[in-house]
Amino acid sequence: MNIVTHISELRSLLNGHRLAGRRVAVVPTMGNLHSGHIHLVNEAQRHGDIVVCTIFVNPMQFGKNEDLDAYPRTLAQDAQKLETAGCTLLFAPPVSEIYPDGLEQQTVVSVPKVSERHCGASRPGHFDGVATVVSKLFNLVQPDTALFGLKDYQQFRVITKMVADLCFPIKLIGVETQRESSGLALSSRNGYLTSDEKQRAAVLYQTLLESRVQLQAGSSIEGVESMARVQLEQAGFRPDYYSVCDASTLEPAQHRDRDLVILAAAWMGKTRLIDNLRVQLSSR
Ligand code: PAF
Q1: Is 37 a catalytic residue?
Q2: What is the location of CATH 3.40.50.620 in the chain?
C-alpha cells in the first residue's frame, strides 16, 4: 500500500492507475479505524480495481467546544489495518495541505435544507465542514465510487444532494451500520465510553428497534418519540434529538409518509452518540 501525504504525490499515483484503466473506489475517513471502516474497504474492493482510503481529521467540521483536539489519531495502527485489508493507497494529508490559506479563507460548500435539522441544528457549521472537505477529496481523488457508512445517515443524505447539485460523476454507496453484539453502532467515539457507559449505550439501538415496532403497529409519531426519550433518559442518556423523519428529505414525518428513518443523537456522559433506523410502513 502506498501512503501519501501530499496532493502532488496523490495525483501522480492516481494518474498512473487511471492510465492503466483502473476504476477507483474511495473510502473517506477521519481515521481511528474500527471494523466498520474495514468493512467499507472490503465493500469498496467490490466496486473498484483500486481502493483509496483517506484519513483526515477535518477541523472544519468540528465546533469550537467539540472534541477536535481529543479526537483519536492512530495513523500507524490505521495504516497497518488498511494494508491487511488490501487497500491500495492511503492519503493522510496534514491540515496545511487541505487548507493552505487557513479555514477562514476556504471556499465553503453548503447544502441547503437536508443539512439544517438534527445534527445540523445541534452542531452549527458541521455539515458545511463535511461537504467542503468531501468535495475537495472528491476533486483530488476523482473516484468512480465513494463509500460511506450509514450510521451517519444525515451525512449520507447531505453528500448525496451535494453530488447531485454539483454534478460530481461519482456513484455513492451507503453501507449498513456495523454493530457490536449488544447492538451498539461501531464508532470511533465509542472509545470515549467507560465500560459501564458502553453497556448502557446499547439501549439506543434497542429503543430504535422498539420504536420501529410501535410505528409499524400504528402508534402515533409523537407518542413514539416521547416514549423513546423517556426510555433513553432512564438508561442514563441525555437525548439531543429523537426524530421520526421522511427518509429522503429528513423533514419530520407526515402521516402519509411511508419510507421513514428514525434519527437519534444522545449524550452518554461526555460522549455524544448517534444512530438511526429505517422504517417502512405498509401503504394504506
Ligand atoms: O464520516 C466521517 O468520517 C467524516 O465526516 C468524513 C466523511 C470523512 C468527512 O470528514
Answers
A1: yes
A2: 2-175
Once rounded to an integer, what is the mean pLDDT over residues 103-112? Answer: 98
Q: Do β-strands 50-55 and 89-91 pair in parallel, antiparallel, or remain unpaired? A: parallel
Q: Say if residues 169 and 145 touch (Cβ distance below 8 Å).
A: no
Q: For 247-257, b where at least 16 C-beta lie within 10 A, e where not — what string?
A: beebeebeeeb
Around ligand 1, the residues with Cβ closer than 6 Å are: 28-30, 58, 61, 130, 133-134, 152, 155
Largest CA distance in the chain: 58
What's the mean per-residue pLDDT of the chain? 98
Which CATH number is associated with domain 188-278? 3.30.1300.10
Q: Give the C-alpha separation, 175 to 189, whole Å.
A: 19
CATH superfamily for 2-175 is HUPs (3.40.50.620)
17, 37, 118, 126: the catalytic one is 37
Predicted confidence (pLDDT) per residue in 141-169, tens digit: 999 999 999 999 999 999 999 999 999 99
Give the Cα separation of 36 and 33 in Å (integer): 8
Residues 108 and 125: beta-carbon distance below 8 Å: no
Could you read off the pLDDT of 198-244 as tens digits, one per residue? 999 999 999 999 999 999 999 999 999 999 999 999 999 999 999 99
Q: Please give the order of strands across the beta sheet that includes 237-246.
A: 237-246, 259-268, 271-280
Listed in order, the ranges of the chain carrying CATH 3.30.1300.10 are 188-278
